[in-house]
């Protein structure tokens, strides 16, 4: 292209979408292999390729936007109008997925054998640990506003402190969830009960790990003075994602309490 008549950056050909898709395929296929054949080789390979793809792709985006100046004001303002509704729609869809588990709530006084086995086997011991759920909720919701301060190149310290606390609370949430999984008296193979619990909480836990990684990248960029008060879309996108993670957690929590998991 000799000359372009618009202010938007035309991205050069990149292999990272292809390698990312291949890594996702290997990870999902490897997860099935782990469940059925007790082999984590394929999933580990997919995870390594995914981590490499994330590193290389973030490197390219940072180079294009921070050092080469390709992220012009029109290209950074446009997503703020369109991505907010996208996050809201995604939040609503995930809410509906989680709420779809509610029809399987067992009746307090089941009258038929079918009702007994509709949701869970009553010989399965459920988790009785509200303090863990409440600690997880407090740690996640308390950092809801910490990820919101606008970056300032002249005063980076408040943003660095807020991001550090947010990341630590996110890692604390992940550690609590890992401890809960380790102590759980059932597995994902224990009927609908185990599947519902691990899908509802694990799917959200995956988003927490992704959001924490996103925030860690923003923290490193803030330490390197990549963000200014007018040029910080990467930070803003990470904050949107983290708020989305906070809101979605309330639904599995409510379902867990309603079903007395």
From TrEMBL:
UniProt keyword annotation of Transmembrane present: yes
Lipid bilayer topology: Multi-pass membrane protein
Keyword Membrane: yes
InterPro entries xrefs: Cyt_c/ubiquinol_Oxase_su3, Cyt_c_oxase_su3_dom, Cyt_c_oxidase-like_su3, Cyt_c_oxidase_su3-like_sf, Cyt_c_oxidase_su3_a-hlx
Listed GO biological process terms: mitochondrial electron transport, cytochrome c to oxygen
Catalytic reaction annotation: 4 Fe(II)-[cytochrome c] + O2 + 8 H(+)(in) = 4 Fe(III)-[cytochrome c] + 2 H2O + 4 H(+)(out)
Subcellular location: Mitochondrion inner membrane
UniProt KW keywords: Membrane, Mitochondrion, Mitochondrion inner membrane, Translocase, Transmembrane, Transmembrane helix
Similarity section: Belongs to the cytochrome c oxidase subunit 3 family.
Function: Component of the cytochrome c oxidase, the last enzyme in the mitochondrial electron transport chain which drives oxidative phosphorylation. The respiratory chain contains 3 multisubunit complexes succinate dehydrogenase (complex II, CII), ubiquinol-cytochrome c oxidoreductase (cytochrome b-c1 complex, complex III, CIII) and cytochrome c oxidase (complex IV, CIV), that cooperate to transfer electrons derived from NADH and succinate to molecular oxygen, creating an electrochemical gradient over the inner membrane that drives transmembrane transport and the ATP synthase.
Name under which the protein is recorded: Cytochrome c oxidase subunit 3
Natural source organism: Lepidochelys olivacea (Olive Ridley Sea turtle)
